[in-house]
Fold:
Amino acid sequence: MILKQAWIERDKWNKDYIIPSYDRDRVKAETAKAPVWLHFGAGNIFRAFMAAAMDRLLEKGLSDKGIIVCEDFDKELVHLAYEPYDCLSLLVTLKADGSVEKRVVGSVTEAVVDEERMKELFSLASVQMVSFTITEKGYSGPLMGKIARLCLERYRQGAHPIALVSMDNCAHNGDLLKEAVLKHARELLAEGQADTGFIDYLTDESRVSFPWSMIDKITPRPDEAVKKLLEEDGFEDSQLIITNRGSYTAAFVNAEETEYLIIEDKFPNGRPKLEAAGILFTDRQTVDRVEKMKVGTCLNPLHTALAVFGCLLGYRTIHDEMEDELLRKMVYRLGYKEGMPVVVDPGIIKPEEFLSDVLTKRLPNPFMPDAPQRIATDTSQKLPVRFGQTLKAYAESDGLDINELVVIPLVFAGWIRYLTGVNDKGEVFELSPDPRLEELCAHLSSVRPGEYPADLSVVDPILRDRSIFVVDLFECGLAEKVKAMLKEMLAGCGAVRRTLEKYLCED
Structure:
């Protein structure tokens, strides 16, 4: 079985494979004639989420056009993972209950690397939206200069309205995209390549919008175990691909079942009916609330807690950590008891339902081999975002007592214990990258796990650092609790687990 035969020889395929029934040749022709959706970023998240959503729309008969994907950073992705397969891909959805869904996705009709072709597409009045999954770093890279030039071409060819939609996992992503495009647009103006009308065009939301969005879906690199599973089915296009720029891809993409995409509904030229594919459209404030719910309460803090203690306790996957009754108890308490009281309900998604999905479907999923060592990267930058607003809410609340927090100070103490670079068995381990690692570790140069120090004043500068915790932990009353927990975690081999047991088993 090979991808290019999917539509032609449906009956010969393994019945476990879902092959849409729409006329793909007609979709390709209609898209080429008047495309509505261009996307930049040909990586795995695009194929697993955006392309799959459009595929569902096509299957329901709610659109007759697909997506044209553009790739600027890693053109090998197109040459190796799109062109040989006629832009088809196989989406392998790995569910928490151990079942697997395999679906051929045919919504991508063209993959583009040539700037002249991009310019031609950008100038078409039919294009309603251009979306991006280029990672946060992409917005400070050379692609933004190209997007500004493409917008200039659209301006010159009629100044047609359009929505430029960041779908990257970063807060207020629409503003990030807008600022990047405008920066390069103003450079074009200064160089005499554009006029002031072009800037007016980009800043007029009735013509060019930059909606905010919140995306959430784990899409790791193609997995060797999935490759073997497909080969057992007789699927031949299973080879794993690593490009020269370090992108991991394949003709298939594996992903978790849970997904959320919430977009500010600001599309001056219209949009596909993506709500029928499960994408939620709302106002900017609601998008922001969903983002804060995810990042500050229901997902990211749990990830950081598991990352810190996973490294200290020698775990290699988040799934394995969720098999540990103690760590499972930790994240349940962190989510339901300490985070939920301060979360703002965005209305469009219930926080309790989101948290339940995280705890019962996402974190325990055996098919999602995410590593605590990876998540521990840049923890000093993540702590203020993931815990800062919760601490601030407790400190400012009349009805909540910050002294009742248990897991959050445990995480802080665990993170400082982590910075010693010695695990709970007394073994040295490699700390994950962090821009402040050298500075932070210097405070702990005199601290040795196993020596049970009487004085931990050396960590006071860390605990007072508002750039890490948003609040001064001494002023809000948590510093001494964190230091006491840290002292206990430093008391020799097994002390980290004993400390967790002490505080988590008190309830």
